[in-house]
Write a structure and sequence with these properties.
Mean pLDDT: 89
Structural class: alpha/beta
Helix content: 40-55%
Low-confidence stretches: 1-11, 13-28
Order of helices and strands: HHEHEHEHEHHHEHEHEHEHE
Radius of gyration: 20 Å
Number of domains: 2
Distance between the termini: 24 Å
């Protein structure tokens, strides 16, 4: 952890100390527990299981780069009131984790989903996350299989903090797993229609390693280097040569990070530039049915399958809404 983060976190302890020493979050919320989360896909999984038994707050704004996010003082205040803090881990939200450790109440657990969902032997090191850097690719949640593991970890953590809610959490978890299984089946059917030579991904951000392994795709490259800056001219030339060599019909950018380099690659190779992949930005707005983890993955798979010559029709059978009553998100997103 950088020295600046440690100093900032220490100062924030002073700023929010009164809140941290106060009563528990559950009492202040009239019986509801307070859960603080990080990126919106994780927030959506948490809300699906907690529903109206918890006040869930996602503190990393949608469209923000979670790798470089620096939380403001207002986030420290949220963390100081939390009964449970759920992050991805695997070095994704380092500044937020440092702030959480410095400002949470003594009894508040921090759950790092990624650290618990996979073993070190299952880590993936690749283009933006080289092994020599020591930090594995943290984007586990695009894998529906691993999202199910996240859901189980979330359910178990909620029950530990709020044992009386165990029947509700268990029922919501089972409902969510059934829907994730339907999403997995539809994804398998849709990707099977992509011609095998086209089952290759070149993306802007390196978020698809675990998903690709699950569905028989190969990630052939990522434009964004490990320092999260733009690639050099030499690296761009290598990417152009690789796209031509692999013969991929489309390359995939980010919904929230437009890239001139991706546009250049498309011009020089003739590949279609698909701009609407999202790894931690849910579609629509909070309160809309598609603003969910499942909605995000349906949009992603539809974009990938359609651009690579497949048929996304099987995805239409999957319900994107939350399993909570009404199916709409009530979570507060920063």
């Amino acid at each position: 952890m950088r020295l600046g983060i440690i100093l900032a976190a220490s100062l924030l302890v002073i700023a929010v100390g009164g809140a941290a020493c106060g009563g528990g979050g559950e009492e202040a919320l009239g019986g509801k527990i307070k859960v603080v989360t990080s990126v919106s896909p994780i927030t959506s999984i948490v809300e699906n299981i907690a529903c109206d038994r918890a006040d869930v707050v996602g503190v990393i704004p949608e469209g923000e780069d979670s790798h470089t996010y620096e939380p403001p003082v207002s986030v420290a205040q949220q963390l100081a009131k939390a009964d449970l803090i759920i992050l991805n881990g695997l070095f994704l939200e380092e500044s937020l984790l440092g702030m959480a450790k410095a400002n949470k109440r003594a009894g508040t657990p921090i759950v790092l989903l990624g650290d618990e969902a996979v073993t070190p032997e299952e880590y993936k090191f690749d283009f933006s996350f080289p092994k020599e850097g020591g930090k594995p690719n943290p984007h586990l949640w695009p894998s529906i299989r691993l999202a199910m593991k996240y859901a189980q970890l979330v359910k178990d953590a909620l029950i530990k903090v709020d044992p009386e809610g165990a029947p509700t959490y268990e029922a919501n978890y089972q409902a969510l797993i059934a829907r994730l299984e339907a999403l997995d089946r539809a994804t398998q059917q849709a990707v099977s229609t992509v011609p095998p030579p086209y089952r290759k991904l070149l993306t802007y951000h390196d978020s698809w390693a675990y998903w690709a392994e699950d569905y028989g795709f190969q990630v052939i490259g990522a434009v964004q280097p490990s320092d999260f800056k733009e690639p050099s001219a030499r690296e761009v030339a290598e990417l152009v040569a690789q796209i031509k060599r692999e013969g991929v019909p489309a390359i995939f950018g980010s919904e929230v990070f437009p890239s001139n380099v991706m546009e250049q690659l498309a011009r020089e190779t003739g590949a279609r530039y698909i701009t609407d992949l999202r790894d931690d930005d849910l579609p629509g707005e909070p309160g809309e049915l598609w603003h969910s983890y499942i909605g995000m993955m349906l949009e992603n798979v539809k974009a990938i399958v359609s651009a690579l010559g497949g048929d996304p029709a099987p995805l239409r059978q999957v319900d994107p809404s939350l399993v909570c009553p009404g199916g709409r998100s009530l979570t507060r997103y920063y």
